[in-house]
């Protein structure tokens, strides 16, 4: 049966980094979204849609904002239990917190429990699609795909591959990484709403042989994505130089093994050389900005303004649990703050675009998700724009929609999430 959701609505008609906000967005103060069989079939004014679809079941969200669900373009669901762990920088953080926790995913029951908890937490924060790393254990990949399938949820995931510089119990081999990744890819990629991403953690934890094997796998399955990390911290970059003395730079450790291409997702990408930027732009690979993680672990400032101006494909992400929040609202706020520190005040339309259409574009899923438009899959978030007293007293003074929504971007969290819809069904609150 057709469902008609009423409230304020926001649609992107262009990329607000490369078009005027007034031309890139369509906002209805009293709008509607028609949902049928998991798809958005119409958007418009509430009055027009009511008149055209008198049989539709109506859910009226009042003054709340209905928009595309948030898309987190880089996360580690196995780190759910260690989010907000104190006081380390990247390599220490991995050794002290991440690797011991990831060892626990040898237990499929623990993986299943964590995957379900993670998807519950992210849905409670309005996130409807995630690109996640798993652990080296194939069961950790099955656990996340199974949990997403049970929720009809679009998901991107892959087995994390590491065959060196990781503790016992967390290393595979070049051959097993290839074999296990291929088996998981053939099992899950394109099944329902699942997409597989070939996933070397990062160059320091893969031998050249493993990177080469994964490059070969990607060449055999070019419609898959490839996700990894790039140039997050300066001492990490020095380590990469020592491990790969012949490489021109960090990116070259991927490029020379067939791991740079369209469909590549490079998390962080903070300290890039001119050659790296040029090559990433040339092949149109995606850079994934992880602002809460970059400040939490002390990594540095992503150059959003310059990289966008140069035409890079950029998504936004929490990087849970190196990131300090499951909330894409909190992540947008951190992106705004880092923008300010690098001389670019991101407009609220740009922040909301990054968290939806921008991330969908990075994941090459923008023909399916990331916008409130007819033909798109019905993954939605409904935001209360006065969810706390502090936000309410600010938003009530707003002179226009952007001024009304910005306090929720800066001060909002899961209390602002009125509803999350996945594939045409309200998963929060449950219907
Ligand atoms: Zn990461």
How would you explain this protein's 3D organization?
By secondary structure, the protein is α/β, with parallel strands linked by helices. Helix content is 39%, strand content 23%. The chain is built from 16 helices and 16 strands. The strands form two sheets. Strands 5, 6, 7, 8, 9, 10, 11, 12 and 13 form a nine-stranded parallel sheet that branches. A seven-stranded mixed sheet has the order 3-2-1-4-14-15-16. Helix 4 packs across helix 5, helix 5 (138-150) packs parallel to helix 6 and helix 13 (328-341) packs across helix 14 (348-362). The longest helix has 17 residues, at 108-124. It is globular and about 65 Å long. It binds zinc ion. The site of zinc ion has 6 residues, from strand 5.
* Ions, cofactors and other bound molecules: zinc ion
Helix segment count? Answer: 16
Multimerization status? single chain
The proportion of residues in beta strands is: 15-25%
Q: Kindly report how far apart the N and C termini lie.
A: 14 Å
Helices and strands in order:
Layout: E1 3-12, H1 21-24, E2 25-36, E3 39-45, H2 46-52, E4 57-68, E5 70-76, H3 90-103, H4 108-124, E6 127-133, H5 138-150, E7 155-158, E8 160-161, H6 174-188, E9 194-200, H7 208-220, E10 225-230, H8 234-243, H9 250-255, E11 264-268, H10 274-283, E12 286-289, H11 291-296, H12 304-309, E13 313-316, H13 328-341, H14 348-362, E14 380-383, H15 389-395, H16 401-411, E15 417-422, E16 425-428
Parallel strand pairs: 1-4, 5-6, 6-7, 7-9, 8-9, 9-10, 10-11, 11-12, 12-13
Antiparallel strand pairs: 1-2, 2-3, 4-14, 14-15, 15-16
The chain binds zinc ion.
